[in-house]
Amino acid sequence: MNTHDTSRLAADLLHHFGRALQPGDSVVPGIAPTAVFHLPGNPANAPYHYGRYHNPTWEALEGALGLLEDAETVVFPSGMAAIAALLFTNVAAGDRVLVPADGYFTTRLLGEKYLQPLGISIETRPTAKFLDGGFEGYRLVLLETPSNPGLDVCDIAAAAALAKRAGALLGVDNTTMTPLGQRPLELGADIVVCADTKAINGHSDALMGHVASRNGEVMTRVRDWRRYGGAIPSPFEAWLVYRGLETLEVRFSRMCATAGVIAERLAAHDCVTGVRYPGLASDPAHATARKQMAAFGSMISLTLRDGVAAERFIEACAYIQPSTSFGGVRSCAERRARWGDNVPDGFVRLSIGLEPVEVLWASMDEALKGAG
Ligand SMILES: *Cc1c(COP(=O)(O)O)cnc(C)c1O
Predict the structure, then answer these.
(1) How far apart are CA 221 and CA 61, in angstroms?
(2) Residue 366 sits in which domain range?
(3) pLDDT class for 216, splitting at 50, 70, 90?
(4) Structural domain count, the chain
(5) Of 95, 213, 238, 288, which residue has the fewest beta carbons closer than 10 angstroms?
(6) Contact 206, 327 (CB under 8 A)
(7) What is the pLDDT, as a whole number, of residue 1?
């Protein structure tokens, strides 16, 4: 992974929109809340026709995300709407789809509830053993690395080679890393999906998602799916996410740096029985993580003695917001067993935010000691 390349991308991101301006234009994109566009005569003469087909604010966001992905990008009103677009446009009756057993739960649920009855087989493998057995016979393989919430890592380049050999499409849910932390398309994946609700927007005030691919046929299907299925983002939300994206690099690098410090200290803490963070040299995922990630992410998983200790810790820490989700400016945490994840009762998923590291650590250390 070449970090110099991502620095260049981060700088270009800030000037991308401005490069096409005419004198007197606004240097930031506007919000275009319209269902219809002025359309006299031949539609071929107008860039915009109707609000379900196109919108200039979506295009500003897609331009910025597309720059980071170095690929055609289509935005959706949530991460799941992007994943639904990927699934429903790339498989047909009789196809087999492989998804992680320990990945984002709703992706699996969507497949089982709506694709399986259409004659599509949804199969699972744990992320840590995702490559075992190859991908022969699959039409679509969907990977999520690091996995969520267990933070296992899978070798994307190796998965891409196996998918190619098997004639399968490889999709990667890159939500936890963003295009600045990990670049699946560069590593050979066919399609990336991302919940921009998380770090890309970063302010926990909007949902959004995107699909990106360098395969034109895939993107035509995905764009048509949005037009005809009608799952379109609101221009206002697209503008909010654009605004959030402008500071992604500074937020994400701060969050990852803080997470690295906190993970080391948690691993050495008497009250913590287990820690997973791909950046820890002792982590089973570390070698693969080093190979493919530009940073090690903002999420840490830790295990405390039991569920009561975990709840006490979350409750007592002044700078941890008890909430689901991750990638926002505020650190937050939750006990994942409350959702039925296959993890110990005392397992906590911790998302590191922008609090200065020593203040955050002092409050965590105190809360851990109190939790017992
Ligand atoms: C949150 C998340 C999603 C879904 O995103 P929404 O915007 O909530 O629909 C998908 N994949 C991963 C890995 C996520 O964390």
Answers:
(1) 20
(2) 249-371
(3) very high
(4) 2
(5) 95
(6) no
(7) 46
